[in-house]
Design goal:
179 residues, alpha+beta, Immunoglobulin-like, 2 domains, 1 helix, 9 strands
Length: 179
Amino acid sequence: MRVLPMRRILFAVAALAAVLIYVIWWVTYAGIHYIPRYTMRPPGASGELQGTTVRVLSLTRSDRLADAEGGEPGVPDPGAVWVVAELEAERHDPAKEFLCGAQLIGPERRLWSTTSALTKGAMPKRALQSCPLDLPVAQPVRFESIFMVPARYADQLAGIALADDSSAARTPVIRPPER
C-alpha cells in the first residue's frame, strides 16, 4: 500500500475547511437577509416606511364588506372573512416615494397581501380610498387596506407588517390602539 504525502492530505483538509467555512457563512447570511425579521411595536405606535410614518387606527373583522353607495356587499370566499385595516400615513421626506407595502401578519409568520379587484367577486365601493400613491408632504392621510383571511386565523392576527424590500432593517409590525 502506498502512503499519501502529507502535503496532499493538508491541501485536501484545507480545501474542505474553506468550503465548509463558505457554506456556514452563506447559510448565516441567507438566514439573516432572506427570512423576514419583525419588530412588534406597542399597540397604537406608528412605524416608519420609506420616509412615511404609518399607524393603524383600527383593524376590523367582518363577514361582509359594505358598499358606500348602498350596492351589494362584498362576500369573501367560503371559509374566509374580511379584515379591514384603517391606516393613517404622513409623508415626511419628499424625496422618497411611498409605496404601499402593508401586509397582514398572522400566526407562524403567515402573510396576507391586500385584496384587489382580481378576487372572485367585484369589490364594493368604499368610503375611504385604498392606499394613495401620491401622499402630500406633512399632511396625514387616512386610507384602508382590505385583506381576505381564512376564518380560522382571523382571531390570531399580529398586526400590519410594513414591508420595505429596499432595507435590511427589521420589518415593523404595527397594531391598533387598545380599546
